[in-house]
Amino acid sequence: MKLTKSLICLLIIASATAHANAGEPLQPLTLQPDWIINVNCAGILLAKDRGWYEDAGIDLTIKSWKAGISPSDEVVHGNAHIGLAEGALLISGFDIPGLARGF
């Protein structure tokens, strides 16, 4: 799962890098994790800490998870651009685009 989330992070950076130009304002991007932030988000946190998102033109905000928060609902309601969630949403007919699943 850690590898999948790291790959998602790299895909985000790679896709944004093609559009990032010096002097342009950063594009805001909000991420809603599906659990308390810990080592499972290491790739995302490392990239943010090292400024890789900014280098790619992204102003990343990582929201805190709390009991009762559904990352998919946060995306659907416009409170986050990306939500980390279980792959079951993709096969259950939930109307939300998916990049990858963890397990």
From TrEMBL:
Gene Ontology terms: biological process: thiamine biosynthetic process
Q: Name one Pfam family in it.
A: NMT1
> Where does the SsuA/THI5-like domain lie?
38-87
Q: In which pathway does it act?
A: Cofactor biosynthesis; thiamine diphosphate biosynthesis
Q: Which UniProt keywords apply?
A: Iron, Metal-binding, Pyridoxal phosphate, Signal, Thiamine biosynthesis, Transferase
PANTHER family, from UniProt?
A: 4-AMINO-5-HYDROXYMETHYL-2-METHYLPYRIMIDINE PHOSPHATE SYNTHASE THI11-RELATED (PTHR31528:SF1)
Assembly notes = Homodimer.
Annotated protein name in UniProt: Thiamine pyrimidine synthase
Gene source species: Desulfonema ishimotonii
